[in-house]
Amino acid sequence: MSESPLYAELAAQSLQLAENGLTRRRRTLDAPCGPLARVDGRDLVSFCSNDYLGLANAPELVEAACAGARVWGVGSGASHLVSGHMRPHDDLEHQLAAFTGFPCAVLFSTGYLANLGIVPALLGRGDAVFSDKLNHASLIDAVQLSRADNKRYPHGDLDTLERLLASSSARRKMILTDAVFSMDGDLAPLPALLELAERFDAWLVVDDAHGFGVLGDQGRGSLAHFKLGASQRLVYMGTLGKAAGASGAFVAAHEAVIECLLQNARSYIFTTGSSPVVACALLASLKLIENGDARREHLRRLTAQLRDGLTDTRWKLLPSPTAIQPVIIGDNFEVLRVADALYQRGLWVPAIRPPTVPKGSARLRVSMTAAHSPAQVAALIDALHDLA
After folding, report:
1. Do the beta carbons of residue 243 and residue 290 sit within 8 Å?
2. Which residues are tagged catalytic?
3. 23-53+293-387 belongs to which homologous superfamily?
4. Which residues sit opposite 249 in a β-bridge?
5. Where are the domains of the chain?
6. pLDDT per position as a tens digit, 120-173
7. How far is it, in rounded angstroms, from Cα 291 to Cα 310?
8. Fold of 59-290
């Protein structure tokens, strides 16, 4: 039997990716999430994880999960709106709302699902979304699902955004942005964006996947970092699988917004509720985040150590004040060569290539965590100096 043209087309696409140095590879870990990884029989120091506070394998979370499983089991059995909303979920929503300073919060299974739920629930045809060009893929997909007009502005370009807002006759408007941009590590100008939202009667939806738990007083996130209160214009999304160390996400906002999501967000209504075990672990995580100033200070010192150590290499460091430290290499094959050379030295750093980042800006994405040691960071600095 001859091969179907459908399979031939897939094979050709895979070959094209390989020829352009864009093939992604999945690795299987034989160790818990942490700075020390075991992959393919090799012991490595990992700089890949978004576990910024080092909580993913924290004993307090493990014990809370085990205790929760003994009381609640491991599955919710249904969507939240049927019978899958358990007491740990409800307690966690109330604590997340209080922690971030909003009246209400609602849990989602992932940050991707949260973003897919927010935009189409609040906007539709005849409305307009004003999106930073470097927004996460989930935000891009959410706009497409909403069928609202998509007005993209150059990264951080407030003048262009203001002109687009002023010229829009849309029924409803939304400014949509990452708080910390996941591949560059820089911060959105949230105070200025909120001022524009107020002036032009728009929502400001903030994806704080990489700021929650790390930035702001007691790790309360990017809004707290900028001393912004819980404006009725704000819709705040935080993920719980990065600094919080577990999985899931939440949206915090005014009561009317949360009620709208409960009634209209398809990615909330039509999916099984998350495990109560995870909610129990996250209740313990919130306490560690709130009391985690020492972890955050250690993370800041390690980040400064890395930046200081790489200032005189030929590769460009982006001006990131966060735990995400991109080292721009440029060429796809060169970044793969450097990442492989680091891997052979026992250092695991991911090579990020288009379409995740713009063409010609392939990079090493170094993720710092509070679980790393100064000696591990020094080893990475020495290796990058040698390879440069």
Report:
1. no
2. 182, 210, 242
3. Aspartate Aminotransferase, domain 1 (3.90.1150.10)
4. 108, 239
5. 23-53+293-387, 59-290
6. 999 999 999 999 999 999 999 999 999 999 999 999 999 999 999 999 999 999
7. 31
8. Aspartate Aminotransferase; domain 2 (3.40.640)
The pTM score is 0.93
Which amino acid, residue 63? E
pLDDT tens profile 356-385 = 899 999 999 999 999 999 999 999 999 999
Encoded tokens for 304: 């400064």
- pLDDT tens readout for residues 25-36: 888 889 999 999
